[in-house]
Amino acid sequence: MLDKTMSVLTALESGPASLAQLVRLTGLSRPTAHRLAVALERHRMVARDSQGRFILGPRITELSIATGEDRLLAVATPILAQLRDHTGESAQLYRRQGDVRVCVAAAERMSGLRDTVPVGSELPMTAGSAAQVLLAWEDSERIRRTLRGAHFTAATLAQVRRRRWAESVGEREPGVASVSAPVFAPSGRIIAAVSVSGPLERLTRSPGRLHAPAVLAAANKISEALRHT
């Protein structure tokens, strides 16, 4: 039974899944998949998104942080500080959770006008450069659904995949610009997005021209460190 339970959690690593998708991904019978998913939901290991699909629950992150085994945060935190110091802008790390992206780490600009995103903030997957990055490598059906209400297009995501970074100007919040790049797990799956964000008056209407190399280098550094830890 433990193996079957783990197969449900493993299936949800790639994103939200309906019951039918869980059955297909795990090979379990429909009653078994449903029983295990609901049991995991009671223990907050699994939750539901706004469409009723199963997603990984908050208890997994809580346990990870409590035991100090979150390699991503351990690796990324000093690199975010370096990115902030190099660019002079606030730096963030986002993970996707269902239909939102969550800020899981941040290094704030010390003074002056800045874009502050507190750790734990939930932001939409329909606006902002980090949302573009987290969506760009998803499966085509999930991309199609999210694009219905997005401030960017399929062509934008194709460009993100090609150059491996994204930029946004006033998408999430008027007067704020940002640049983001993907963090990949050793398996090659995207697991997070590194961003810098700040006022449009400093980042200009082409923020990627200023900060894409630094953001991409930071994301690559985190990905590389994860492969060696």
How many helical elements? 10
Low-confidence stretches: none
How many domains? 2
Distance between the termini: 30 Å
Report the sheet-strand fraction: 15-25%
- Please tell me what the overall shape is: globular
Query: Cα-atom Rg, whole angstroms?
Result: 18 Å
CATH superfamily of the largest domain: GAF domain
Q: How many strand units?
A: 8
Mean pLDDT, to the nearest integer, reads 89
CATH topology of the largest domain: Beta-Lactamase
Structural class: alpha+beta
- Along the chain, the helix and strand elements come as HHHEEHHEEEHHHEEEHH
Named at the architecture level, the CATH assignment of the largest domain is: 2-Layer Sandwich
Helix proportion range: 40-55%
Give the CATH level 1 class of the largest domain: Alpha Beta
Q: Give the strand line-up of the largest sheet.
A: 5-4-3-8-7-6
InterPro entries: GAF-like_dom_sf, HTH_MetabolicPath_Reg, Tscrpt_reg_IclR_C, Tscrpt_reg_IclR_N, WH-like_DNA-bd_sf, WH_DNA-bd_sf
Protein name: Regulatory protein IclR
GO molecular function: DNA binding; DNA-binding transcription factor activity
Keywords: DNA-binding, Transcription, Transcription regulation
Explain briefly what this protein structure is.
The protein has a six-stranded antiparallel β-sheet. The protein has a two-stranded antiparallel sheet with strand order 1-2.
Describe the protein.
This protein has helices at residues 2-12, 19-26, 30-42, 58-66, 71-87, 129-136, 140-147, 154-163, 200-203, 207-227, and strands at residues 46-48, 54-56, 90-97, 100-107, 122-124, 166-169, 176-184, 190-199. Helix 5 packs antiparallel against helix 10 and helix 6 packs across helix 8. The chain has ten helices and eight strands. By secondary structure, the protein is an alpha+beta fold. The model has no long low-confidence stretch (mean pLDDT 89). The chain folds into two domains: 2-64, Arc Repressor Mutant, subunit A (Orthogonal Bundle); 70-227, Beta-Lactamase. Strands 5-4-3-8-7-6 form a six-stranded antiparallel β-sheet. The protein has a two-stranded antiparallel sheet with strand order 1-2. The chain starts with a helix and ends with a helix. This is Regulatory protein IclR. One of its GO terms (molecular function) is DNA-binding transcription factor activity. Residues 59-228 form the IclR-ED domain.
